[in-house]
Design goal:
This is LYR motif-containing protein 1. This protein is mainly alpha-helical and 95 residues long. The protein is 59% helix and 0% strand. It has a domain of 65 residues.
Length: 95
């Protein structure tokens, strides 16, 4: 399947899911985000970037269907190096 057909297929799939969504506000949110996002990236020409965006849309669609939450999953940026257990600070006083 050509990339153009993949993009159209993904766009229509998302709109189909939006039409079947129960909550009217979320239904409109899905439609608006879909239209705005596809419009934003309509001029992409790099095949790798297009494939990446298709995969991102597919993953979000699957998450929305599975968890019944149409919004993007929050990403937490935890810096594990800055988090130290409280007992590490006291190790120097053991001897």
């Amino acid at each position: 399947m050509s990339r153009h057909k993949q993009v159209i297929y993904m766009y229509r799939s998302i709109l189909r899911v939006a039409n079947s969504w129960e909550n009217i506000n979320q239904k409109e949110d899905i439609r608006n985000e879909c239209r705005n996002t596809f419009q934003k990236y309509k001029d992409l020409e790099d095949n790798e970037e297009i494939d990446s965006k298709i995969e991102e849309a597919r993953a979000r669609l699957l998450l929305a269907l599975h968890y019944k939450i149409p919004y993007e999953k929050k990403k937490y940026n935890l810096h594990l190096n800055t988090m130290k257990p409280s007992n590490e600070q006291d190790e120097s006083n053991i001897n």
